[in-house]
Amino acid sequence: MGAAHRVFKNMIIDQAEIDALLAQTNAFVDEVQSDAQSPQAASEPEMNVDTLPPEIKRLLRLRVPVIVELARCRMSLANIRQLSLGRILEFSKPVNDSLEIRVNNRSIGEGEAVKVGENFGLRVTRIRTRSQRITALGA
Fold first, then answer.
1. How do beta strands 66-69 and 11-14 pair?
2. pTM above the 0.85 mark?
3. Looking at the chain, which residues constitute the CATH 2.30.330.10 domain(s)?
Protein backbone atom coordinates (compact mmCIF):
# COMPACT_ATOMS: atom_id res chain seq x y z
CA MET A 1 0.00 0.00 0.00
CA GLY A 2 1.48 3.35 -1.04
CA ALA A 3 2.08 6.44 1.07
CA ALA A 4 -0.94 8.12 -0.55
CA HIS A 5 -3.32 5.77 1.32
CA ARG A 6 -4.35 5.78 4.96
CA VAL A 7 -6.13 2.92 6.74
CA PHE A 8 -8.63 3.74 9.50
CA LYS A 9 -10.36 0.71 11.05
CA ASN A 10 -11.19 -1.16 7.86
CA MET A 11 -11.48 2.05 5.80
CA ILE A 12 -8.94 2.82 3.10
CA ILE A 13 -8.86 6.49 2.19
CA ASP A 14 -6.49 7.84 -0.41
CA GLN A 15 -5.11 11.38 -0.33
CA ALA A 16 -7.35 12.52 -3.21
CA GLU A 17 -10.44 11.45 -1.26
CA ILE A 18 -9.19 13.21 1.87
CA ASP A 19 -8.53 16.40 -0.14
CA ALA A 20 -12.00 16.20 -1.73
CA LEU A 21 -13.65 15.73 1.68
CA LEU A 22 -11.70 18.67 3.11
CA ALA A 23 -12.79 20.85 0.17
CA GLN A 24 -16.40 19.76 0.66
CA THR A 25 -16.15 20.48 4.40
CA ASN A 26 -14.66 23.91 3.69
CA ALA A 27 -17.51 24.69 1.30
CA PHE A 28 -20.05 23.59 3.92
CA VAL A 29 -18.38 25.72 6.61
CA ASP A 30 -18.32 28.74 4.28
CA GLU A 31 -22.02 28.22 3.58
CA VAL A 32 -22.84 28.01 7.30
CA GLN A 33 -20.79 31.13 8.01
CA SER A 34 -22.46 33.11 5.21
CA ASP A 35 -25.86 32.13 6.61
CA ALA A 36 -24.97 33.58 10.00
CA GLN A 37 -27.17 36.47 11.08
CA SER A 38 -24.36 38.91 11.82
CA PRO A 39 -21.00 38.89 10.02
CA GLN A 40 -19.53 40.73 13.02
CA ALA A 41 -20.67 38.04 15.46
CA ALA A 42 -18.12 37.43 18.20
CA SER A 43 -18.31 33.66 17.87
CA GLU A 44 -18.87 31.34 14.96
CA PRO A 45 -22.30 29.79 14.43
CA GLU A 46 -22.74 26.33 15.91
CA MET A 47 -22.58 23.59 13.31
CA ASN A 48 -25.21 20.86 13.69
CA VAL A 49 -23.21 17.67 13.09
CA ASP A 50 -26.43 15.68 12.57
CA THR A 51 -27.13 17.56 9.32
CA LEU A 52 -23.71 16.90 7.79
CA PRO A 53 -23.34 14.45 4.89
CA PRO A 54 -22.11 10.98 6.02
CA GLU A 55 -18.73 11.33 4.31
CA ILE A 56 -18.03 14.54 6.24
CA LYS A 57 -19.15 12.91 9.50
CA ARG A 58 -16.66 10.11 8.74
CA LEU A 59 -13.91 12.66 8.16
CA LEU A 60 -14.68 14.42 11.46
CA ARG A 61 -14.05 11.15 13.35
CA LEU A 62 -10.42 11.02 12.20
CA ARG A 63 -7.92 11.57 15.01
CA VAL A 64 -4.96 13.81 14.20
CA PRO A 65 -1.93 14.83 16.28
CA VAL A 66 -2.23 18.19 18.01
CA ILE A 67 1.12 19.70 18.95
CA VAL A 68 1.72 22.47 21.48
CA GLU A 69 5.02 24.07 20.64
CA LEU A 70 7.05 25.43 23.52
CA ALA A 71 9.91 26.99 21.55
CA ARG A 72 12.41 26.41 18.77
CA CYS A 73 16.10 27.02 18.45
CA ARG A 74 18.93 26.21 16.09
CA MET A 75 21.99 24.39 17.34
CA SER A 76 25.21 23.39 15.68
CA LEU A 77 25.79 19.70 15.18
CA ALA A 78 28.77 19.98 17.52
CA ASN A 79 26.51 21.26 20.33
CA ILE A 80 23.92 18.57 19.60
CA ARG A 81 26.66 15.93 19.90
CA GLN A 82 27.55 17.32 23.34
CA LEU A 83 24.00 17.00 24.73
CA SER A 84 23.89 14.82 27.82
CA LEU A 85 21.49 13.89 30.61
CA GLY A 86 20.70 16.84 32.86
CA ARG A 87 21.78 19.45 30.31
CA ILE A 88 19.42 22.43 30.10
CA LEU A 89 18.52 23.90 26.74
CA GLU A 90 17.76 27.60 27.01
CA PHE A 91 15.34 29.29 24.63
CA SER A 92 14.96 33.00 23.98
CA LYS A 93 11.19 32.78 24.52
CA PRO A 94 9.88 34.29 27.81
CA VAL A 95 8.20 31.83 30.20
CA ASN A 96 4.85 33.66 30.10
CA ASP A 97 4.61 33.87 26.29
CA SER A 98 1.75 32.12 24.51
CA LEU A 99 2.34 28.60 23.22
CA GLU A 100 1.42 27.75 19.65
CA ILE A 101 -1.17 25.06 18.86
CA ARG A 102 -0.27 23.22 15.66
CA VAL A 103 -2.09 20.68 13.51
CA ASN A 104 -0.40 19.29 10.39
CA ASN A 105 2.52 21.59 11.24
CA ARG A 106 0.25 24.62 10.78
CA SER A 107 -0.76 27.05 13.50
CA ILE A 108 -4.43 26.94 14.48
CA GLY A 109 -4.22 29.01 17.67
CA GLU A 110 -2.40 29.91 20.85
CA GLY A 111 -2.76 29.22 24.53
CA GLU A 112 -1.17 29.47 27.92
CA ALA A 113 0.27 26.62 29.95
CA VAL A 114 -1.81 25.48 32.93
CA LYS A 115 -1.52 22.69 35.47
CA VAL A 116 -4.37 20.15 35.47
CA GLY A 117 -3.86 17.94 38.50
CA GLU A 118 -0.40 16.52 37.93
CA ASN A 119 -0.60 17.01 34.16
CA PHE A 120 0.26 19.78 31.75
CA GLY A 121 -2.66 21.52 30.05
CA LEU A 122 -3.29 24.45 27.74
CA ARG A 123 -5.89 27.20 28.09
CA VAL A 124 -6.77 28.33 24.55
CA THR A 125 -6.44 32.11 24.27
CA ARG A 126 -6.70 32.53 20.49
CA ILE A 127 -8.15 30.20 17.88
CA ARG A 128 -8.41 30.61 14.13
CA THR A 129 -11.76 30.46 12.38
CA ARG A 130 -13.33 27.08 11.71
CA SER A 131 -12.53 27.44 8.02
CA GLN A 132 -8.86 28.24 8.74
CA ARG A 133 -8.62 25.26 11.11
CA ILE A 134 -10.06 22.92 8.47
CA THR A 135 -7.66 24.32 5.88
CA ALA A 136 -4.78 23.56 8.27
CA LEU A 137 -5.71 19.87 8.06
CA GLY A 138 -5.08 19.81 4.29
CA ALA A 139 -1.80 18.93 2.68
1. unpaired
2. no
3. 66-139
